[in-house]
């Protein structure tokens, strides 16, 4: 049973508002670290955190109130100039906001959060007393207290409370109270044994802790202006419906005069325009600024950079760009991987950068913009870039591709190797990377959103990863084609162009049909064969398609044209390669194809290298 029975609506409102406030606080804390004297920014942070504490107090979430109150005291001392802002102090503050975020997750499950970790409270008290002592050199977290040993964060901030005799005491708030001023004096005499040592970098799980996500929201905030637009359009559609009803009655009574038919045509045209406007207006109610997602990443980049000992600045642009809410939620995991990869793999350490004539601080840029009917998201770094030849060797070494296939890849295709499952350039597995699953997850998730991902990299200059996504998944632009006297729809995002199929141009490569298009050898795949249907005629057209990093030609009998469709799932069945169904203008059912699923298990002909080509006039494709 929920600990907050009867308060579910209030709790939902609190979590919705406070989660956004906390993300904004984290973002501004990262900015404050760059501008420690910005009082206006600190006041904004203070107000946001105070609002969270007030809501927690109203709902009687005492554990959250406790940690918020102590953190507010730190903000107050910073605002009054009683404490200097250091990286070690910021670590403790961000640890506190991370715990509050974890409490949000607990509250979303209807449970009361546990009391804050004693070590964190001790660290906050030590910071308030001005006892955070930065270490002389980076020190690894003690192996004796691994984070995985407990469900609570391994704050590991209060290393030890030391008496004058040097004997370690228990790391509890009481012990900290005992060793206040007198022990600090003892530390001055023997600086090799600090009373309270701040952790040199965030705890190993800090980036993940800070990014802990609550369950997907089932509500959405909509601008009232957009709702008014929907209401107005609904009213106009109602008026047009009344006009059509009147005209229908007149026609049924035998009034077929030219004026009546012209009025009918005008009313239908008006209805078509209004329905289109209503559809767009309703779609806009689902659109949310992508900045709600982007604001989580400055904290992520900051914590990871501290953990790795790097200087990284994350610059975000295009936060106002709007995208379908459901897509924003599904984009979180891919973008987390890409931001982490840019900080971990992409940029160098300060020492490495200085040695090659670069600024010690690296730059990672995250941007979004609308281009036509698509959203383009780019993650760019000014790091060391990628070596295509090194990627080729690593893929062969890990057994992901054979040497013959690898030798036929150009530089662009070599960069795409990072998306292969199991591929990693790291020889040692760490808690950050090395397992070869991150980029595979990125590509898979982007494909589920009917998007495309592309990589450009230059050694010594940096890497840019571009993601292109449709504005919404509710309406899918498709190309309707025909095969075996049946219409099918393929996602337009995958279509590059349409070409006529000349039988004389078909050649065999290792026993498989191919066509050369602008010096590119592309495998030819017949839609009927992919569906395991018996072809009724020779395909007349080829749709040049891009699936992930592979290009191919889909042979079809003919094509109908472009359309925007609403996909409906098939009840109780899911044929291979079918994403759903829609209705055409004439009322017939059109199957919408899932090309990735349809192509799964289909072997492609290798491209490049020395291959024997022969004409395939008689080839049955």
Overall mean pLDDT score? 78
Spans of 5+ residues with little confidence (pLDDT < 50)? 133-215, 603-620
Supply Rg.
Answer: 30 Å
Number of domains: 4
Total number of helices: 20
| Quaternary structure annotation | single chain
Strand order of the largest sheet: 12-16-17-15-14-13-21
Structural class: alpha+beta
Q: How many angstroms separate the termini? A: 62 Å
Please name the CATH architecture of the largest domain. Answer: 2-Layer Sandwich
Q: Tell me about the largest β-sheet.
A: 7 strands, mixed
CATH topology call of the largest domain: Heat Shock Protein 90
Protein model, in words:
- By secondary structure, this protein is of the alpha+beta class.
- The chain is built from 20 helices and 21 strands.
- The protein has 4 domains: 8-159 and 196-210, HPT domain (Four Helix Bundle (Hemerythrin (Met), subunit A), Up-down Bundle), CATH 1.20.120.160; 224-285; 290-470, Heat Shock Protein 90; 476-615, Roll (SH3 type barrels), CATH 2.30.30.40.
- A 7-stranded mixed β-sheet has the order 12-16-17-15-14-13-21.
- The termini are far apart.
In a nutshell, what does this entry contain?
By secondary structure, this protein is of the alpha+beta class. It has 20 helices and 21 strands.
Please supply descriptive tags for the structure shown above:
Heat Shock Protein 90, disordered C terminus, 7-stranded mixed beta sheet, 20 helices, 621 residues, 5-stranded mixed beta sheet, Four Helix Bundle (Hemerythrin (Met), subunit A), alpha+beta, single chain
């Amino acid at each position: 049973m929920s600990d907050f029975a009867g308060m579910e609506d209030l709790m939902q409102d609190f979590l919705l508002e406070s989660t956004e406030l906390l993300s904004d606080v984290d973002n501004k804390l990262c900015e404050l670290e760059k501008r420690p004297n910005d009082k206006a920014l600190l006041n904004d942070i203070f107000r946001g955190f105070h609002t969270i504490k007030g809501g927690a107090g109203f709902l009687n979430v005492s554990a959250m109130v406790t940690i918020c109150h102590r953190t507010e005291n730190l903000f107050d001392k910073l605002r009054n100039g009683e404490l200097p802002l250091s990286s070690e102090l910021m670590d403790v503050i961000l640890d506190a906001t991370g715990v509050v975020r974890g409490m949000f997750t607990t509250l979303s499950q209807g449970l009361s959060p546990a009391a804050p970790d004693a070590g964190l409270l001790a660290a906050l008290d030590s910071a308030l007393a001005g006892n955070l002592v930065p270490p002389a050199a980076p020190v690894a977290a003690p192996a004796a207290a691994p984070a995985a040993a407990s469900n609570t964060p391994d704050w590991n901030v209060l290393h030890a409370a030391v008496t004058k005799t040097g004997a370690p005491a228990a790391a509890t708030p009481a012990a900290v109270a005992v060793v206040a001023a007198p022990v600090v004096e003892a530390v001055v005499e023997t600086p090799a044994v600090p009373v309270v040592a701040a952790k040199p970098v965030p705890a190993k799980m800090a980036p993940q802790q800070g990014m802990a996500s609550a369950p997907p929201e089932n509500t959405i905030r909509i601008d009232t202006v957009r709702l008014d637009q929907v209401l107005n359009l609904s009213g106009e559609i109602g008026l047009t419906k009344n006009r059509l009803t009147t005209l229908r009655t007149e026609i049924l009574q035998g009034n077929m005069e030219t004026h009546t038919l012209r009025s009918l045509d005008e009313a239908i045209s008006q209805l078509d325009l209004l329905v289109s406007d209503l559809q767009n207006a309703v779609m806009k109610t689902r659109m949310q600024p992508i900045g709600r997602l982007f604001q989580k990443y400055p904290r992520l980049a900051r914590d990871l950079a501290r953990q790795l000992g790097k200087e990284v600045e994350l610059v975000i642009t295009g936060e106002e760009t709007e995208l379908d809410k459901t897509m924003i939620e599904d984009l979180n995991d891919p973008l987390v991987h890409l931001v982490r990869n840019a900080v971990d793999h992409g940029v160098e350490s300060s020492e490495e950068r200085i040695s090659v004539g670069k600024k010690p601080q690296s730059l990672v840029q995250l941007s979004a913009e609308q281009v036509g009917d698509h959203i383009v998201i780019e993650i760019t770094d000014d790091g060391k870039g990628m070596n295509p030849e090194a990627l080729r060797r690593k893929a062969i070494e890990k057994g992901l591709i054979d040497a013959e296939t690898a030798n036929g890849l150009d530089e662009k295709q070599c960069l795409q190797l990072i998306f292969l499952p199991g591929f990693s350039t790291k020889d040692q597995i760490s808690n950050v990377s090395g397992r070869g699953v991150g980029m595979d997850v990125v590509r898979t998730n982007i494909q589920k959103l009917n998007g495309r991902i592309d990589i450009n990299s230059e050694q010594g200059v940096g890497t840019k990863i571009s993601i292109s996504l449709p504005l919404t998944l509710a309406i899918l632009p498709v190309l309707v084609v025909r095969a075996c006297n049946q219409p099918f729809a393929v996602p337009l995002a995958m279509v590059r162009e349409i070409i006529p199929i000349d039988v004389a141009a078909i050649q065999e490569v290792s026993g498989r049909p191919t066509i050369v298009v602008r010096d590119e050898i592309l495998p030819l795949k017949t839609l009927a064969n992919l569906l395991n249907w018996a072809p009724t005629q020779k395909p007349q057209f080829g749709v040049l398609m891009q699936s992930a990093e592979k290009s191919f030609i889909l042979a079809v009998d003919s094509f109908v044209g472009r359309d925007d469709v609403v996909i409906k799932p098939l009840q109780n069945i899911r044929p291979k390669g079918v994403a759903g169904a829609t209705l055409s203008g004439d009322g017939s059912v059109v199957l919408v194809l899932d090309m990735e699923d349809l192509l799964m298990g289909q072997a492609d002909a290798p491209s490049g290298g020395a291959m024997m080509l022969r004409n395939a006039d008689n080839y049955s494709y």
